[in-house]
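Worked Example 4.2. Consider the chain below.
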Amino acid sequence: MPEAIPLRQRAARLGLLLTVFVCAACGLVYELALVTLGSFLIGDTAVQASIVLSVMIFAMGVGALAAKPLQRWAAAAFAAVELLLACLGGFSVILLYAAFAWLKVYTGALIVVALIIGGLAGAEIPLLMVLLQRIRQQAASSAVADLFAADYIGALLGGLAFPFLLLPAFGQIRGALVVGAVNAMAGLVLVFTVFRHDLRPLARGLLGAAALTVAAALGASYLYADKFEATAEQALFANPIVHSEQSSYQRIVITEAASPFRTKDTRLYLNGDLQFSSVDEYRYHEALVHPALAQKRRNVLVLGGGDGLAVREILTYPDVESVTLVELDPAMTRLARTFDTLTELNRNAFADPRVTIVNADAFSWLRDCACRFDAAIVDFPDPDQTSIAKLYSKEFYGLLARALEPGGAAVIQSGSPFYAPKSFWCIEATIRAAGLATAPYHLNVPSFGDWGFILATGDASARLEIAPAARPRPLDNAVLTAATVFPPDRRADSADISTLLHPVILDHLRQEWSTR
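Applying the procedure from the previous section yields the following structure tokens:
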């Protein structure tokens, strides 16, 4: 019969494996926090994930090797590693946000933080292996299996807890601080209970003092997180912030300042990118909407445009019977219905009984919808992230073409033909590849510069015109005809086509705007 394992030994082994479980969950949360912060601040989630994951996995290997000389003092070394990991992991979001806001650097700081966190995380397993074998002598293969089973299961917990619990309940800054505290507690409880006799009095005293210092720092930062976030966020914007929130999809910021043209200049930013200025937004939205509604407009579809400003322009036509707006983020449409400054700008458009709001992913909604519309307005942010690039793909425009009634028209906002001509003409070529006729045009919007739009129809040729009943301030038929002319240095003889599996629009946009 196999030898019975003493109860105390079994309890110690269970405690150690539970610590592995918790530490693995914390480590994965740190990775996800860095990826999420980068996607909010910089965009391009795929690049952020690639940087964080590759750097951290590399650093984990280095950390595992660096831990070999520490195995003689495995208990004290493990406690020190957990305190350092809790401190840097807990403060990682604060440190990177501060670097982005005040030092105007991010990627370099991200790599340094990811290297250190990865190195510390990599040192955990070798030290825990030594501690496990001190509890019970067992074959190395069996010990490795036990450790990695607890590690991988813990990673599952961390991966699920981050988006479904930590972000909604605590936000990014406080969520990282909470995980740092849990990380430190798990390591210290193990060492000061199961392995307390392995620590010399001096080591116990130093670790205890360090633990109190880390706990005090994490706790104070938790209390002042809101003040820090407000101060750092304000440093990113020239005008005073009057509203900011982190939705499930994006960071929404509204600023206001005095303007020489009007009483105030209200600006909306999504993930740091300007969406409109109240001083000149009418030039953008009137140019976006009115050419699409020149012929047919009984039923109108709006994709994006959660601020309600495009819907405002559509509702100026009395013969419009219904407007369906599809916007991913319910926080944006809620704000457009309830925030006084926005309701004033959009003339309370979402309260009109003709308007139906659908909070859904536009790609999925178009794919599943059998509806047809006389006109469509496509008002998405620039495709600087993988999740948005699919909305500028040939497949998406094919779905849009299917949703148009015969003789219907759509207008797609297409970025700046001056600052990003490759991106602009890539969008135009992609729309044509989906079987739509196109008529590109552009207009000066002072807050953005030269800005481009594309009229798309299912007819043999797209005809740009303004309905006789419309009175857009920046446009008439003569101006619209002139708007179709592009200077020689901003024309394109050929352009790439962006698809779901090959989103070349991302590469063009990243290259062109990074040199601005």
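The chain has a mean pLDDT of 91. The longest helix spans residues 140-193. Compare this with Example 4.1 before moving on.
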